[in-house]
Amino acid sequence: MKLIFSFIVILILSIGNFFIILRNFKKIKKNITIVQDRGGFGNTFEICDLARYIFKSNYLFIFFFDSPRHNPYLPLLFTKNYIALRSSIRLKIFGRYYSIGMQESNKSQNLIIELLVCLIKIICKKRFFRNDDLRKKEIYNFSKHSGYEKFDFRHDKGSQWKGLYYYLVNIKKKKINFKPLEKKLSIKELNFFNKLKKNKNICIYLRNRKSKADKTNYLRDGSQSKEYIKMIKYILNKNYNVLLTGDEVFSKNQLDRININSKHKIYDVNDYSDDNRNLLRLLFVDLGEIYISESGGANYFGLYNKRSIHINTFPFCESLTCHNFILKKIIDPKKKIKLNKANIKNLFYHNFDLGKYKLLPNSSEELYRFIKRNIN
pLDDT tens digits for 191-245? Predict the structure, then answer.
């Protein structure tokens, strides 16, 4: 029964996407077209941001998005010329959320998306790029023709493009435009947003996927919820509101206990309805005078924030998006010693293979002391 229901949902979504593609036939035909149908939030950010450096505004971005893995409004920060195609739905049943049609676990969905991408490629009469094409091919062609050949080769072979990307961000000084998102808020949330604008805010992005299937995911998870509380109380006492984005880390009771004794408040984006939550996940970043991030796709916002701080940093290359950072602890169990920053940089620059070592997230005291040094 579950498989039948899932197939019906996928079929309905696919038919809808087919007609959206046909409705945008002329737009696809006349534009350089970039399609993303793989990867998560960070991949979307990378591709959208790279595209505006390479092609300026002369491109169309087509985005197959899973809910809640992706944010359908993210491309709007970089271009108005994009098409969002939904590839899954998220339902709340008896208090729990269920996603139906997720690409990475559904062969039928992957096959249909493959056919839709082929249709887009046939329609497109200009240059066509898909997923890694932009990052692993076109950026190198761009660098040769534009004179940007000095970039950081310390990344592994598949990620050397990041060095040039960071270089472009640094010299071009482009900005992210959050204004179009404000227009999409409901009246109630817009009033709430405008009220927050008048206060001092710090945005914190936390990562807690709880999945052991992929080490590149779970090794980037942050600390347990109790470890952040001392740090957050310190921020509140410094007269900042705390705007939480990312994964749901705290229970409502935990946040209520902190808020009841504080003049300034914690606002968790996960408390809002789906559509407003997606908008506020991005707009909270804009409201933050300081951006505190963990190792996930949203850490890229640190490249554009005036003050960005990274916590629970791993691997080492995640630190390149911020102004200051604290690494996770890496322990050699046999020698019973903690690796220093230089060793971590050398062994785990872009490497997730821990081997004999043990990885530990930041403790409450480490987070508190680090934030106290950087926010006073």
Answer: 999 999 999 999 999 999 877 667 888 889 999 999 999 999 999 999 999 999 9
231, 364 Cβ separation under 8 angstroms: yes
For helices 41-54 and 139-146, give the axis angle rounded to 10 degrees.
Answer: 30
Q: Is 104 a residue whose pLDDT tops 70?
A: no
62 in Cβ contact with 33 (< 8 Å): yes
* Residue 84 CA, distance from chain mean position: 17
C-alpha closest to that of 370 among 319, 316, 324, 337:
324
Query: Is residue 59 a contact partner of residue 34, using CB atoms and an 8 Å limit?
Result: yes
Domains 2-131 and 179-374 share a fold: yes
Residue 150 has pLDDT above 70, yes or no: no
Helix, strand or coil, per DSSP, at residue 324: strand
CATH of 2-131, one of 3.30.70, 3.40.50, 2.60.40, 1.10.10: 3.40.50
CATH architecture type of domain 179-374: 3-Layer(aba) Sandwich (3.40)
- What is the value of pTM for the model shown? 0.91
Domain ranges of the chain: 2-131, 133-174, 179-374
Interatomic CA distance for residues 84 and 213, integer angstroms: 28
Among candidate residues 338, 237, 230, 244, the one with its CA nearest the CA of residue 291: 244
Say if strands 329-332 and 358-360 run parallel, antiparallel, or are unpaired: antiparallel
CA diameter of the chain: 64
Instruction: Give the Cα separation of 160 and 23 in Å (integer).
Output: 38
Calpha distance 78→88 (Å, rounded)? 24
